[in-house]
Design goal:
Radius of gyration: 22 Å
CATH class of the largest domain: Alpha Beta
Number of strands: 16
Distance between the termini: 28 Å
Helix content: 25-40%
Largest sheet: 6 strands, parallel
Number of helices: 11
Structural class: alpha/beta
CATH architecture of the largest domain: 3-Layer(aba) Sandwich
CATH topology of the largest domain: Rossmann fold
CATH superfamily of the largest domain: NAD(P)-binding Rossmann-like Domain
Shape: globular
Order of helices and strands: EHEEHEEEEHEEEHHEHEHEHEHEHEH
Number of domains: 2
Strand order of the largest sheet: 13-12-11-14-15-16
Strand content: 15-25%
Amino acid sequence: MAPVDVTSVADISVEPGTLPEKMTAWVIRQEREGEPIDAFQLEEIEVPEPGAFEVTVRVMAAGVNYNNVWAALGQPVSVFRYHPEEDHHIGGSDASGIVWKVGTGVTRWAPGDEVIIHCNQASYEDVEVHGLDPLAAPSQKIWGYETSWGSFAQFTKVQAQQLIPKPKNLTWEEAASYGLVYFTAYRMLVDQCGLQAGHKVLIWGAAGGLGVFAVQLCAAAGAECVGVVSSKDKGDLVMQLGATGYIDRNEFKGMMRKGGESPEEEKERFKESRRFGKAVKEVLGDAPDIVFEHVGQATFPTSVFVLKPFGKVVICAGTTGFNLDFDVRYLWMRQKQIIGSHFANAYECMKANELIEQGRIRPVLWRT
């Protein structure tokens, strides 16, 4: 494949309302699945035309998420199973940009509008979209992971309902950085767990993409939180964002579930979980009402154990493994709840974005 000239990718030869024929995009093809550095290749590809109730957006900035790693690796499943009609995959589930062309039926948006894009798609024909929750719809997909037209391109194609006005107080890069992780954290804490003042919350990976927003949501609600991090620098960051305190997970390496532990090894692991639970109480003054989970296999047994009776573990991912093995006695005897959560609906995205516009929540960028 011929190399792509990237010296002028920011130049667009047409005005809003008209699309060029070709664009530059970071593309995965099924035969290249593997390490991201090899799987993603720059290609020149056709610009997608918007269909009914769709919009084509010129991408001004794109955010990077862990699902891009999964897409590249083809694990746990190949993304091509989600869109077999396409022979390419353009990743990216976060973006800010300019509406460039609208499809038939679109009345809220016009060429030139500055927007951010949330990543939930579903068919308008599914009844769940109109009466339950779009996330319950059989057709529900995450744009840029389960669809082929993500944000790692000059243009992307989305449903009109995915668009949200770009906050005027943010740069393009800031506006592109937070959608998937922040809106996910908002649904987990605010809608799934009813976060409120006085709640005590344990946040795993508190300096990561999800965690930095979970910490800020707790602070905005008047809740106390302790963040689990991997270094003092990250601990300092979560304190700046409003955490009550932090715990360095490197001091509790023995509590991590690896899978396949012998009875003796599990006994030692449980001792470390008890010690960790005491450290959490020292920071919060009590056991947590809510545990914010996305790590999965390594931490889940500890999450269930340290949670307060009648408390809630809310989980949206399993970055260390999807098979969760824990002592269920601590669940039923202390009447705890496990809640699964997946991204957010359009209304939740809008309400979460209002906090950004008000300056109560801010994006945390590592590098642009």
